[in-house]
From TrEMBL:
Subcellular location: Cell membrane; Membrane
Similarity-based family: Belongs to the binding-protein-dependent transport system permease family.
Keywords assigned: Membrane, Transmembrane, Transmembrane helix, Transport
Bilayer topology term: Multi-pass membrane protein
Pfam family, one: BPD_transp_1
Protein name stated in the entry: ABC transporter permease
Domain ABC transmembrane type-1: start-end pairs: 59-240
Amino acid sequence: MSARLRLLLLPPLAVAAALAGLYLWVDGQQLDGISLFALTNDDAATSATIFDGHVLTKVGEHVRLVGISAVFVLLLGIPLGILLTRTRSRIVSGVLNGFFAAGQAAPVIGILVLLVAIFQLKSWVPYVGLVLYSVLPVMSNTVEGIRNVDPALIDAARGQGFSRWQVLRRVELPLAVPVMLAGVRTALVLLVGTATLATFVDAGGLGDVINDGIKNQRDVVMITGAVYAALLAVTIDWLAAIAERWLSPRGLRPEAGR
């Protein structure tokens, strides 16, 4: 099987197999009222599966948390990365790198609690916390990708009369895309994992399911939420890998040298 087919087929097949296995396992368990309510949000429920509406609603909330946060991570991380390659100011570079490095080094739950303490339970608080925690890989990889462009190519572009903006848009950014997209993949996986902690600031998502299982000591509920979160991370990483392959310049794709 070629590398392209493995990329396209193996991850979704593995996710489907894992969901099928989880479904069969949960279906074979003797669920009590607490577990049924946690999975269905219905006091009258007599049975539950991993595809009940309540669980899928939590999956949708988790995707919303990750998706909106990812948009702001890109809107913030890429321009800041470009800015760091345009400025020679060590103060600017040090402040930006230090700020976002501190945001990633601090526990995300600590960032969320601090934001709630300052701004109360605003709807945007979890997004700010997730963005601060996940923007560093995108910014750092943008800087690394642009700085690793061969200086000879930049000199050649300037020799043809390109402005600095044209050099950035037509030479540096296209050649930096593979490294930048690797940072985006890292940020997306970080977002999926850390978004489970948004349950502690009433933001919903799969963290609600996991937390219900932990609080009520119901392993079936906890494992259902945890497996969904893990499979969502695998799925998003798979989609990002496809985007990384096809958005990279043709000559830089893995199969280009074959």
